[in-house]
Amino acid sequence: MSQLHEVAEQLGEVFEGYFSALHELRVAVEAGLARGDGIDQLVLDFVGPRLMDPATTVVGAGFIGGPGSAAGESIHFAWWLGPLEDNPLLGTTTEVTRLDLAAREYADYLRDFTNMEWYSVPESTGDRHITGPYVDHLCTCDYMLTLTSPVGSPALGVVGLDILVRQIEPGVLHLLRSLQGPAALLSSTGRIIASTSEHWELGASLQDHEGVRVPGTSLVVAKIFN
Amino acid sequence: MTQHALPDRGPRSAVFAPLSGAARSMQVAQRLTDAILLGVIRPGERLPTEAELAKRFGVAIVTAREALSEIREAGLVETRRGREGGSFVLASEDTPEQVLMARLRSISRIELADVGTYEATLCAGAAERAAELASPEEATRLATWWEGADFSSAQSAARNQGGLLLEISVAAQSPRLVREQIRFQAEFGQLLWLGLGEGGVREQVSALNSEIVQAIGSGDAGRARAVVRAELKILTTWLLKTKERLEAAA
User: Fold this and answer.
1) pLDDT band of A153, cuts 50, 70, 90
2) The pLDDT of residue B14 is above 60
3) Host domain of residue A180
4) Banded pLDDT at B94 (limits 50, 70, 90)
5) ipTM score here?
6) B183/chain A closest Cα distance in angstroms
């Protein structure tokens, strides 16, 4: 196995960890929906302690129900944010905070959340998905990856979690440094998530590379030819 | 050797000057005034309670109370007591011109021009980066959203103008630009979009927005930058021209 494949395997394990937590949440939500339980409390009970774990790199998580999942709502957010530092919307928080879209008036222009990539892709493909890296302006106003997975089949909604790119950067760089020469972790569209090259930074996309798919994800680990 | 403390004077003392409560309540009052002027909050509508306003604006309840009392004195809302009580937006006896006049009188030409310059600089830079960095998928999503964006009334145009400029900051991939855009719009958005109340301005800006979206899609950073500056120039010029017209007539 080449070095590139080895690093891809290791990165795959990292993301598998996030996705397996997401799978647990999915199973809990599906069971709760089937029993007709109050879904908000169920989601909070699951994500609350995990978001408060000092070792976590997950900054937000929850369930987003599509049309029909909650009476009188076109979309239902049961989404919580972990403790935040100097958030432009919420300031500094020490507990979990529920996402309150009504308090984000600037986001009124978003007509349809079911069009958002983190919702529409898992809903239509029935498969888990990684959105980003992108700047999220609803929750943390930071650069992040959003992992989502469909709930029910056909999908009634999605469960998801948000990871700050800067928080996973040290771990990813550590793995990339075991490769000879500059390398990067890329999104499916080639956007840099982390790179060991000073020429490839925030927001840039890399087209010319020799890459290997990170197992279980749409991400690619690649060597960079400057 | 003795260390001399710097005298607490000049720019240095300004850095540590406490934010005055009065200034904060005035800021809250102005945002509410702008929202009422633009029709985002309509006559007859009940404003959020003092506690809700305090939470939304991140100020003390007493500050929210002062802000409400300011806009009550300005005749924009009335407060009713009782179970169905609260602060309700009045169908103003003043003409919209008079209310607009009061708002434009409260801000100097220099401040107005600077608000325009700041937003134009922020957005032109973001548009340039967005054109360089947006993936084809992102550009298509932006274009699809813009095609369906309602620009037919002052209120919907204002909402979507703010939305478009925020989306452009998102496409620039910069958390700082996004945070700054949100902060700027909360403070000055309603004011800067006032020109969209005029049909002609709305049409011009709408056409320029289509050009910006196209320029971002085709990766034309120079054009995206130039058109963003041009449209913010139109909105700023409208404010300056209107201020002059109203004040000269008074």
Assistant:
1) confident
2) no
3) 167-224
4) low
5) 0.88
6) 8
* Residue type at A24 in one-letter notation: E
C-alpha A18/C-alpha B100 separation (Å) is 53
Q: Do A137 and B182 touch (CB under 8 A)?
A: yes
Name the DSSP class of A87.
Answer: B
Q: Are residues A122 and A44 in the same domain?
A: yes
Closest approach of A10 to chain B, Cα-based (Å): 27
CA distance A189 to A60: 24
A169 shares contact with chain B (CB less than 8 Å): no
- Mean pLDDT score, B168-189: 91
| Number of structural domains chain A divides into | 2
Query: A135 and B160 in contact by Cβ < 8 A?
Result: no
pLDDT digits (tens, 9 = 90+) for A105-131: 778 788 788 889 999 999 999 999 999
A161 strand-pairing partners? A61, A147
Using the beta-carbon criterion (under 8 Å), do B185 and A203 form an inter-chain contact? no
Q: Residues B16-35: what's their mean pLDDT?
A: 72
**Domains of chain B, CATH where assigned:** 20-93 (1.10.10.10), 106-249 (1.20.120.530)
Residue A154's Cβ-count burial label (10 Å; 0-12, 13-18, 19+) is: exposed
Closest CA to B35 of B71, B78, B69: B71
